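Readers of this paper often ask what the protein records in our data store actually look like. Such a record has a labelled line for the sequence and another for the backbone structure tokens. Nothing more is needed to write down the fold, since each code stands for a local backbone conformation. The remainder of this section carries one protein's record, kept here as part of the documentation.
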Amino acid sequence: MKKIIALALAFLVLCSFSAFALKLPVINPLTQKNIMLKANIYPAAKFQPRIRIPTCIKELTPENYWNTIRTSEKPVIVKFYSQLCEPCKRMAPYYEQACWEYKDRADFYALDIFQDLDFYYTFGLHHVPALLFYNEGREIERVANITPDIEFLRDEIDDFLAGI
């Protein structure tokens, strides 16, 4: 009797995994209900290489912030952002587009505020996304709580570059 139960259990397990691999519904023979299996069908999928789109925006950290700003030969535009901020997410493609348009006239950087919130608060900023404009290591202008709009971004960058 134990062999029959063991074989039945092995058969049920084998059928479950086969159906799981084929994405078929698995029916529990005792309750006649569909069993939802919660496991990763393709465990290797999370290890597949992701396609990285080339970007001209360089990431900043609190450790290299001031050194990068002071040693840059071109004017610098720094975007403070958060991964959780919806306006930041909507602004990201516009900032990328502006970076490609103005890359020969200015350096574009981005700093995630959650790397170090104390560093972020030292700037007196309380809203993201925020842009800080630097020339020769000195802050020239800042714009906080930006509306995600390419024309607004172009106007701000043009005003900044015209004033230096």
Remarks:
- Residues 17-22, 37-45 have pLDDT under 50 and may be disordered.
- Residues 92 and 120 are 19 Å apart (CA to CA).
